[in-house]
Predict the structure.
Amino acid sequence: MPDLIPVLDKETIAQKVDHIARQISSDYKDADLVLIAVLKGAFIFMADLVRCLDLKKLTIDFVRLESYGDGADSSGRIRMVKDVEVDIRNKDVLIVEDILDTGLTIDYLKKHLERSQPRSVKICVMIDKFERRKVDVQAQYVGHKVTEGFLVGYGLDYAEAYRHLPGIFHLTF
Ligand code: IMP
Ligand code: MG
């Protein structure tokens, strides 16, 4: 049976989300911001983040990408299952993602979005897992950094399980 080792509890996550939201609210004060969350993993982070933002104007949208099968290892292949629906041309776009690992997913998405000529594209992740990075992608807003390990909870899954957990845990096999 896999073990769940606590990494971030619900209260700590809330503090980190609030901290990121303050930075974003200040940096995008007068901007026309579009937040684009990557389904399914970022659904909880997105929901928490938007409610902490102090911005007059904000649009949200979702994409669905698949980079993993049902296991813990990346296939390296990325497929767009659902594209952006709002017009992002000349808008400031912020990608909202659960975890940045090899970077392949966000690199793919950033390049895809840039084809629609937004004014800017930046990256916001709850977890930056930097040891396995394969491409040079940097997140401007990061909740928490880890070197390695497979994390679950707060939207993150292992074979579709554990997404609903309010905290983030290290899954050991
Ligand atoms: P990347 O393309 O390798 O950066 O992987 C990003 C995607 O892989 C994330 O959106 C997650 O869906 C998944 N992923 C990477 N690491 C983990 C993890 O530790 N737990 C759960 N999902 C992960
Ligand atoms: Mg994901």
Strands lie at 3-8, 33-39, 58-68, 74-82, 92-100, 120-129, 141-146, 150-152, 168-172. The first strand starts at residue 3 and ends at 8.
